[in-house]
Specification:
BirA Bifunctional Protein, domain 2, Rossmann fold, 3 domains, seven-stranded mixed β-sheet, 28% helix, globular, RNA-binding
Length: 499
RNA sequence: GCGGGUGUAGCUUAAUGGUAAAGCACCUGCCUUCCAAGCAGGCUACGAGGGUUCGAUUCCCUUCACCCGCUCCA
């Protein structure tokens, strides 16, 4: 725990806009709630994070617990699939939580989390599903209604609408304050074909994971993979959030980095531990500090019914502090998804062990599912550093690998040979890295600008460069300078960025 | 979805029932040999839609967006 100054979300959002990281979507039309556009620097940053994930998951994944390299292949599935996919996954129907509001107390409840106890024909009492007997009795006492354990109890979702007037809400005093349940279907609907008709409804994917499950068979048959193996995918997902909040943290369109790890059921616990450990290491490697990241095992009552364990990696965002917000969930999903798709599609999802041809099973799945856009937000928040001692007053402390610009080339003056040498160096370096060339205005302004966008190194060309071919390297965090020869600049950057 | 707040330029703030001022930033030029310096010039705003009014950025209504709290987050 450190006493670092509290970072103000307002300032971070303002810098993101000012410098071209993230803009409100459709801003010139007054915006649109829950959507964001990534500007030039935000796009670079997001790509850097995405590429690091792809490299560390697909191209160069970790060594497994048995000392062998693990095998993970990539996928890029369609955003729109046959609507049956989402029926099988449970996103259509099962997960569209009906909500009721209480007009008296202004509270909102999930209808499937409320029970109704029929004390008499005219007096029905709604209580939270999880309430103990004791709490229920207390509630009845408060309402001055006699309690009897033999009263019929039903879930609110099974109560007829015309009986709602008899129900006293869980926190209300009077009956009839609950509104009729409203279904919140979190999936975006769209119509396929130029002419919309009743049966042309399809859905934008609510997660990238289902694209992986429905391609599991294809990949098994084509990619020469053997269980255990993984399939990884990065891409957009869409959820019709009731209430988008907190900049890009909860938005209706976002980007995920998901990997499904298929393994024999008996090995699943071992792999679960393995991926928990690997993923926590990874988030550190992209620059998130130990002080602001926690790892949280879900309690049994938080788990969805098919999950045999979920482990969250969470970051202390300025808007959640002192609490945390989720970056990645590592879930042990059993064989729920493959079984669902087997049942709904009629396609066998069994894996036959090629070693003995006898051992048949539906693989179990460990799912490390990370939010790419949430990762970007965490890195932005982490990097934002207030420093009154420098002209910009603030700098972005990105790791060199995450920084949208790796270096800036700055001729000290716009005269003589300075710009010429600078341009030559720029043309060489940009073949390897994202590089800025900035000739205009005085050097102080240019350093300040680079600080605000988090460029780790500035190379400055001056008269001495003309004389002996050396440039100054200015390091972002310390503002310290050293001279190196022009010939060494590329090697210097390669060493700093690639390690 | 509920309650509260906010909305004038990229940012921070003015003024006004008669269409808006400044500082910083940004751009151009000059000048500058290392941290937003100086000089000259330039661009940019009343969130949107209605209503009242001769006239609305100002008053009223609606709406949109953002912030805080509640709710929600499979």
């Amino acid at each position: 725990m450190t006493d670092a100054p509290v970072k103000d979300m307002k300032d971070i959002v303002a810098l993101c806009k000012r410098r071209g990281f993230i803009f409100q979507a459709s801003e010139i039309y007054g915006g649109i709630n829950g959507f964001w556009d990534y500007g030039p620097l935000g796009t670079e940053l997001k790509n850097n994070l995405r590429d690091a994930w792809w490299r560390d998951m697909v191209l160069c994944p970790p060594i497994g617990p048995d000392g062998q390299p693990v095998e993970i292949v990539g996928l890029d599935s369609a955003i729109i699939q046959n609507p049956q996919v989402w029926v099988a996954s449970g996103h259509v129907g099962g997960f569209s939580d009906p909500m009721v509001d209480c007009k008296e107390t202004k509270k909102r409840y999930r209808a499937d989390h409320l029970n109704v106890i029929k004390a008499s024909d005219a007096q029905w009492v709604a209580v939270n599903e999880g309430n103990e007997q004791e709490e229920v009795e207390k509630r009845f006492k408060k309402l001055n209604i006699k309690y009897d354990a033999s009263y019929a109890t039903v879930s609110l979702v099974d109560v007829d609408l015309k009986d709602y007037s008899k129900i006293i809400g869980p926190d209300a005093k009077e009956a009839g304050s609950l509104t009729e349940p409203k279904a919140f279907n979190l999936l975006f609907e769209t119509k396929i074909g130029a002419v919309a008709s009743e049966d042309s409804t399809a859905y934008l994917r609510g997660e990238t994971a289902q694209g992986i499950f429905i391609n599991y068979k294809n990949i098994l048959d084509s990619a020469r993979v053997k269980v255990p193996f993984g399939i990884a995918q990065v891409g957009k997902a869409f959820r019709n959030e009731v209430n988008p909040r907190n900049f890009i943290f909860r938005s209706r369109e976002f980007e995920q980095m998901e990997m499904e790890w298929f393994c024999p059921p008996e090995d699943a616990p071992q792999w679960f531990e393995f991926w928990k450990e690997e993923r926590r290491k990874w988030w550190k490697s992209v620059g998130l500090s130990d002080n602001d990241v926690i790892f949280r095992e879900h309690d049994a009552d938080e788990l969805v019914f098919y999950s045999k364990g979920t482990f969250d990696i969470e970051y202390r965002f300025p808007f959640t502090a002192p609490g945390y917000g989720e970056l990645e969930g590592i879930a042990y999903r059993g064989n729920y998804d493959l079984t669902q798709h087997q049942e709904h599609s009629g396609t066998k999802m069994e894996y036959i062990d090629p070693m003995d041809n006898k051992n048949r099973y539906i693989p179990h799945v460990i799912e490390p599912a990370a939010g790419l856009t949430r990762g970007v937000l965490a890195i932005l928040c982490e990097a934002y550093t207030v420093d009154p001692s420098r002209p910009s007053g603030v700098y972005m402390n990105f790791t060199p690998a995450m920084a949208p610009k790796k270096a800036a080339i700055l001729p000290l003056t716009a005269k003589g040979e300075h710009p010429e040498i600078a341009t030559k160096l720029y043309l060489e370096l940009r073949q390897h890295f994202a590089i800025d060339l900035d000739i205009k205005q005085n050097i102080g302004k240019r350093y300040a600008r680079q600080d605000e966008i988090g460029t780790p190194y500035c190379f400055t060309i001056d008269d001495e460069t003309v004389e002996n071919g050396t440039v100054t390297v200015r390091e972002r965090n310390t503002m310290a300078q050293e001279r190196i020869h022009l010939d060494k600049v590329l090697a210097f950057l390669q060493e700093k960025i690639n390690g």
